[in-house]
């Protein structure tokens, strides 16, 4: 199986980083502005991505599998792009120096395809958006995310 | 084997992107300011990374394995961090819409470790630097690169 993994450090306490990833409110500030559902363990969260004109470009539903405050979050993708179904999204937090370190994973892709490479780069810019949100109060969630190629 | 792969699009002709990756001059503008060696096929290129104060943080040597103008570049790491030795660095270029698309790969890691996750995120910000350099004339090579965590 193929996994995307990234490491980023955020100058903030772990609970603030954890809340930005584990709550609907937090997620709307760095990934996509349109997030709805049940953020508790066992719940499902739906993410909608639109063009700036308002047309839907993509939607996905994550089931919340693990939630350990200030420690880790794991979702499993249950609806969305075909290649994403069944993959796991993991955020593992630790405190090092003056930073909260996140090891992010988008794990268990069936194969490494061009779309995987696109998603890897896209996750990197969303993690920079997460850092901006936590450190400054302002992230760049979709549809105002940094575009990285001709796909998005 | 484990690979980092990223996809990025640059609004420019392929030869300009190719030159930014295949020449010493180009590389100093987006990866690290200190690059020396022989950029031809079979040559070795040495990259030095320093702190802003001038202390050496890391050095690596790449052997140029493939060079196909406007198409692809492949290096193999022959000196550097232990985990990098023997890994392949690939840049595959294609023209799509008004962009030159790069599929970047840092391939054949022995295992996926925390340092791999760090390098994946770091490569993403260097690819953004490459795009900035080609599109605007100004990248963010080390030591003025975007820092992503407590390691760099």
Low-confidence stretches of chain A: none
Strand content of chain A: 35-45%
CA-CA gap between termini of chain A? 25 Å
**Biggest β-sheet of chain A, characterized?**
7 strands, antiparallel
Please report the total strand number of chain A as a whole number. 7
Q: Pairing-aware structural class of the strands and helices of chain A?
A: alpha+beta
Radius of gyration of chain A: 14 Å
Mean pLDDT of chain A: 97
Largest interface: A-B, 31 and 31 residues
Helix and strand run of chain A: EHHEEEEEEH
Biggest sheet of chain A, strands in spatial order? 1-7-6-5-4-3-2
Task: Give me some keywords for this one.
homodimer; 152 residues; alpha+beta; seven-stranded antiparallel β-sheet; 24% helix
List the helices and strands and how they pair.
2 copies of one chain form a homodimer.
Chain A (H helix, E strand, L loop, with lengths): L1 E9 L3 H9 L1 H4 L6 E4 L6 E7 L5 E13 L3 E8 L8 E9 L2 E11 L4 H23 L16
Antiparallel strand pairs in A: 1-7, 2-3, 3-4, 4-5, 5-6, 6-7
Helix pairs in contact in A: 1-3
